[in-house]
Amino acid sequence: MTTTASNKVRLATAWFGGCAGCHMSLLDLDERLIDVVGLVDIVYSPVADIKVFPEGVDVTLVEGACCNDENVHLAHEVRERSKIVIAFGDCAVTGNVPSMRNRLDRDQMITSVYSEGPGKPPPTPALGHFLPTLIPKVLPLHQVIPVDIFLPGCPPDPERIWAAIVALLKGEPVLLPEEMRSFG
Description:
By secondary structure, the chain is α/β, with parallel strands linked by helices. The protein contains 7 helices and 7 strands, in the order βααβββαβαααββα.
């Protein structure tokens, strides 16, 4: 793994359509987080409040499925600017719960929620200024960009995350032990 001048891996995490459970599971590394923070520079993450995805990222963990145009745009930026992209959790790997929307008529759903719901609906052109546009179908990450590593689980348990992080930081292939390859 190439490192920065500070000799740390440049790590990013992104959160698309999902519940944030994968990021919570990452935080469940508990005291091992101190070891990770000593070896990485977190350059982008929903927990770091960085607004622009940076150049020259070594590893990006992407949680969640691609549900809207903002997710698709950021996915392409992540791929362009990251050496390794990891589909982080079942939503990124398979679409999981967010893809349940695929059975619904998108336009009817938006009409029902925003026009027929309680209260006065916002004017239709105003929605584009406040909400990202839903793409026709929710997609797992690999259907939008090439993915290097799939880290399954809903969410992946901390031991699975730790095994992947340790392998990456050592510059080894991420080959999870057999007992960590099944999930669900």
